[in-house]
Amino acid sequence: MRRFRHETGTLRGAAYDASAAREERTMIENTKCECGHQNPIGTVLCESCGKPTSNDAGAGLLEMRYDGVARRSQKANPNLIDRVWNFFSSVKVAVWLILITLAAAVIGTVLRQENTFFNPSMVDLERFYTEQYGTFGKIYYALGLTRTYETWWFKTLLFMIGTSLVVCSLDRVLPLYRALNKQGIRKHPQFLKRQRVSLETGLPPGYEGNGGADRWIEAFAASLRKKRYRVRVEGAALFAEKNRFSRWGPYVNHVGLIIFLLAALLRSLIPEWNTELDMQWVEGETKRIEGTPYYLKVNRFTEEYYEKDELPEALRETGQGVAKSFETDAVLLECVSDCEGEHPVLEERLQHTIAVNDPLKYDGLAIYQFHFEPTDQIVSMRLTLKREGEESEENLGTFRLDSFDMKLSQQAGSHLVEIEEYYPEFFIRDDRPATKSKEPVNPGYVLAISEGDGGERFRYLFVPKLGIWTELEAEGYKVRGEPSGGFRVAIDSEDDLQLARYKTFLTVRSHKGMEWIWTGAAIFMIGVIMGFYWQHRRVWASVDGGVLLVGAHTNKNWFSLRRETADALRAAGVEVQPNELDNGVKRH
Amino acid sequence: MKKYRKPMQIAILLVFVLVGGITVASALSNDAEAPPTEGQIAPDFSVAGLDGQTYRLSDFRGRHVVLNFWGSFCDPCVREMPLLQQIYEHYADEGVVVLGVNLDESLATVRSFVRSVDVNFPILLDHGKIQKRYGVIYYPTTFVIGPDGKIAHKKVGEITDMRQVAAYF
Fold it and tell me: Chain B contact for A125, CB < 8 A?
């Protein structure tokens, strides 16, 4: 058994040996400082007096990161949870995670992503990628890289970065907070001497004799207070500190990032928070926005081209038109009752001209201009029902044919008009009326006209666009609906005909929870500002047997710290130049 | 302080496992929304038919279902209609169901078309929902769904022979 264990130990190699070595060290390592304080394993500077522990290299400048305290993850005998914690607490791991995610994000930019298609569910993507990019495209699609940012592994990476952010922060901020909250005033002489800003000198004139040390410390304290340091004095030792809050900057900005990531996650979970719909409208059409109580009515689409003299020379030659603007006049309506029924009641909410980069925005909904196409459709007709009398035609009444809101039966005066058949793009297939498409490009109606009350019904074929007749005749088709029963249907004036010249393609986005995204971003910025524009500065001083020791530390802008410390020292009678404070010892 | 650490650690860990689980599950459920392929369960739907009745796919569990997507504007769809009617009549005794899903045409169009081609299997008035869920891009597309609710065959394009469908019963 023993032998076996030994063998696996050697087989596992370095990893096994390292953990064994760590265990061994916990047995012999004396973590008690000579000042009597018991430090946790991994401590570099004694938590109490600042004396370097056996973990310190022994020479050069002090390692002041996290104030020399042990991080949460530096723990003996880690269990499973500790190991997971330790993994995520590693900055090395965090950097790798970020690099891998970056690489994955780059892969997602190689070929066009699926969500850039208009209505991707209606596109044969496999065929598109194969035809457009060949075998590479086919493989890229098969691997799911055409939707890189929605794949489970990409989301897992993002989640791991989030976890690493939280764990790395907690692992450092808690011990650091504890350390900064209980800083001693009197430090070990080594701690002061090995600071990057340090001075060892005698007491200046005027402070000799009994109590001189205490008086000098008081004078130095007063000059530091003028520089807005918070100063604590203990006998002939002093500790001054300012702008400690800037140390929390990185952690505040991590909190911001976490809020940002969680909000992004929620947006992907709650459909109402973030959905994107690609829809098309014909001028004059009112259509419901799927999954919402809103309808959009498109009144008019306009496009404008640059005049020739507005174009640069190079483009003028090509003779191609360049669109100056294209925009959709639209009205947003909300359904207030009978929304699932046949006659929903709509109320107008907002009118807006949607142009590129100028969406219609209402209640977390944003509707963007995407694309347009010219078309030629009949949206609606106001028709007059006539009957030929003996001498003149008689108007019986009017009715409407709306291509996008079809009423199958309606009253024209005292007569009943019913739609029996409808062909949006009328043509003749195998001697029968049929349609070429779903769009009312050339609508054909078979109407049944009667006097109501179950009287005789007369069928009438109505195809308002004239162009069709020659085609029909050429195919030898006999037009049913020659005046039938003496009835005739007519469009009396041009105003009675509503045409659509354009189809407009709009993208509808619902944008909710954005306030959380912005909150996260704002907190992130606050953290950055806290950490960048202020520095945590500390000054220690002690007088022992006529020897004056000063040490100072900051997390950045050392030049300014040296100047400030020299100024304060001069105010207390110690003549010193800022550069003399620079502790020449190289950092190892 | 030490003794609070363990439950605290476990609580934090649980929160992370939860958030991570939700993240990955949401990504995977997006994949589940992808169009079904052969061998997968046919997504259920409930939709009104031309006859005014409501049709629910899961009501036909235990029977073969031929789910055909068609439009009157699509020539091959029109051509295969008589064949679908034949399948409907021929296999009715074996409990085979034929459902014709119309591709979002107006009621007047559908009604007159069905009357003119003389078919009497149920016609469903889909307004793009079922079509989208099933990822139907080409017309016609016909799914043969087994008694277990799984897609036995997906036929894209015109059916020219009854056996192209019947082979999967």
Answer: no
Look at chain A and report how many structural domains it folds into.
5
How many angstroms away from the CA of A442 is the closest CA of chain B?
13
Chain A residues close to B15, C-beta within 8 Å: none
Structural domain boundaries, residue A352:
271-375+504-512
Within a domain: residue B41?
no
Residues 6+ apart with CB under 8 A from B84: B66, B68, B98, B100, B119, B121, B159
Q: Test B109 with A420 for CB contact under 8 angstroms.
A: no
Do B54 and B26 share a structural domain?
Answer: no
Answer yes or no: do B72 and A434 touch at CB < 8 A.
yes
Asked whether residue B136 is assigned to any structural domain, the reply reads yes
Rounded to two decimals, the ipTM of the complex is 0.82
Give me the number of domains chain B comprises. Answer: 2
- Whole-model pTM? 0.74
Give pLDDT tens digits for A494-526: 788 888 999 999 999 887 888 899 999 999 999
In this structure, the answer to whether residues B136 and B64 fall within a common structural domain is yes
My answer on whether B77 and B116 are in the same domain is yes
Does residue A131 sit in the same domain as residue A242? no
